[in-house]
Structures are given as C-alpha cells and as structure tokens.
Amino acid sequence: MIIGLTGGIATGKSTVSGLLKEKGFAIIDADVAARKVVEPGQAALERIIEVFGSEIVTEEGTLNREKLGAIVFHEEAKRKQLNAIVHPAVREWMLSEKEKAVQAGSRTIILDIPLLFESKLEWMAERTLLVYAAPAVQLSRLMKRNNYSEPEAAARINAQMPIEDKKALADDIIDNSGPLNATKQQVEDWITRLNLCV
Ligand SMILES: CC(C)(COP(=O)(O)OP(=O)(O)OC[C@H]1O[C@@H](n2cnc3c(N)ncnc32)[C@H](O)[C@@H]1O)[C@@H](O)C(=O)NCCC(=O)NCCS
Ligand SMILES: Nc1ncnc2c1ncn2[C@@H]1O[C@H](COP(=O)(O)OP(=O)(O)OP(=O)(O)O)[C@@H](O)[C@H]1O
C-alpha cells in the first residue's frame, strides 16, 4: 500500500511521519528530496543560479535557503519558476526511493509530500492521509518553530492550498490540533483501521 502523507506547512507532517517511522514504516520525504536535488553539482542548483543569480548561493557554493525563501514566498511567479526547476527532480528521486523500498520488501510505503494536492500528485499514492491543524494553531506553531513574524508565517501559509480545502480532498485525516498523545492515538487507530503492515 502506497500512502501519500500530506498537510500544510507546520501542521505536523514530520511529527506524524516520525511516529510512523518509529513503528517501522518506510518513509520517503519530499522535503529531504528537495534538499538533495539542489546540492552542489546537481543540475537543479545550476538552473537556480541561472534564474535567481549567483547571489543565491553562499560562499561555500551551497543554496542560500533563507534568501531564496524570502523571494519565493512573497512572489508567486518566482515560486512557480523554482517549482518548475525542483519538482521534476524531486518526483524522480521519490519514485526511485519508492522502488528501493518495494525491492527491500516494505509492504506499506509512506510518501511524505507537502504539496501533494497543489501539484496534483494523488496518482503517486493509493490513499491520502492529511495531517490537519486548525488554521490558528498552524500559524502559531509556525511562528514559534521558525521564529517568524506573523507576516512571514502568513506568506508561507498563503503559498499553499488552504488546509480546510485539503480536508475535502483527503481520504483520511489526523487532527493534530490537540496534544501529541491525542495525535498518537489517531495514528494507532488509523493503522488498525487500514490493517497496515510494515
Ligand atoms: C524555498 C526554500 C529554499 C526554503 O527553504 P526552507 O529551508 O526555509 O524551507 P523547507 O524546504 O524546510 O520547507 C518547509 C516547508 O515549506 C513549504 N514549502 C516549501 N516549498 C514550497 C513551495 N514551493 N510552495 C509552497 N510551500 C512550500 C512546505 O510545507 C515545506 O514542508 C525551499 O522550501 C525550496 O527549495 N522549495 C522548493 C521545493 C519545494 O517545493 N519543496 C516542498 C516539497 S517538494
Ligand atoms: N500536537 C502537537 N502539539 C504541540 N506542538 C506540536 C504538535 N505537533 C507538532 N507540533 C510542533 O509544531 C511544529 C510543526 O510540526 P512539524 O514540524 O511536525 O510540521 P510539518 O508539517 O512537518 O512542517 P513543514 O511543513 O514545515 O515540514 C513543530 O515545532 C512541532 O514540534
């Protein structure tokens, strides 16, 4: 069974994927992929430099994520340009990691993809699981975790499909608005209901 795990920024995808990993499930994380494909020497980084200029990398030649984030989360056209460079390479990496997990005998594979619905990637999974948090909770957790001002956090949230809209698209929902143990219980119940094996 291939599961597409998604959510909004800071709604708790990593928290839930961490719980699933502890139980032994195979997790393939698009945020990890998005970092790997822009490492020095990768074609995607060269393209980013062509489009955003050489000031987008540090003296060591690595991507200046803070600088790029400040641009793309405030300008949709620039974000689309970045997505067009990075997303094809991310998808390729995800599919190849999924194949490795299948070969290794994993019976359930979790694809953690923040932009699953925005990028219409439902075809990559048999079932989708949304990690939801109420919008006010999402905003305050994001501000706290990243030390963002409210406008900085809101810009990032607004770069995604509203979390309430994602609710209508998901097969299953874990509500992570409450305390961690309530989330843990929902994860246990979901595994039992779907009869998932690692
Ligand atoms: C702009 C970048 C350099 C900012 O890096 P930063 O370290 O600050 O953030 P990080 O990569 O950890 O992402 C944090 C979260 O932001 C959200 N996010 C990231 N990129 C995007 C995007 N293009 N559109 C909407 N939301 C996004 C996701 O929820 C993600 O989980 C980076 O996010 C990036 O390269 N984004 C493009 C690739 C992408 O779409 N990644 C998301 C999953 S494939
Ligand atoms: N149930 C909870 N109660 C309190 N804090 C939580 C809870 N779940 C997650 N958090 C905190 O909220 C923040 C966001 O959670 P997490 O990093 O798991 O989200 P995410 O969806 O993976 O984020 P991103 O989209 O940026 O990758 C973290 O600081 C985390 O510790």
Automatic annotation (TrEMBL):
Pathway given in the UniProt record: Cofactor biosynthesis; coenzyme A biosynthesis; CoA from (R)-pantothenate: step 5/5
Superkingdom of source: Bacteria
Reaction(s) this enzyme catalyzes, per UniProt: 3'-dephospho-CoA + ATP = ADP + CoA + H(+)
Pfam family, one: CoaE
EC number(s) from the headed UniProt entry: 2.7.1.24
Keywords, comma-separated and alphabetical: ATP-binding, Coenzyme A biosynthesis, Cytoplasm, Kinase, Nucleotide-binding, Transferase
SUPFAM superfamilies hit by this protein: P-loop containing nucleoside triphosphate hydrolases
Primary location recorded for the protein, binned into one broad class: cytoplasm
MF (Gene Ontology): ATP binding; dephospho-CoA kinase activity
Location(s), subcellular: Cytoplasm
CC per GO annotation: cytoplasm
GO terms of biological process kind: coenzyme A biosynthetic process
Binding site for ATP: 10-15
PANTHER family per the UniProt record, alphabetical: BIFUNCTIONAL COENZYME A SYNTHASE-RELATED, DEPHOSPHO-COA KINASE-RELATED
Family: Belongs to the CoaE family.
Reported function: Catalyzes the phosphorylation of the 3'-hydroxyl group of dephosphocoenzyme A to form coenzyme A.
Protein name as annotated: Dephospho-CoA kinase
Gene name for this UniProt entry: coaE
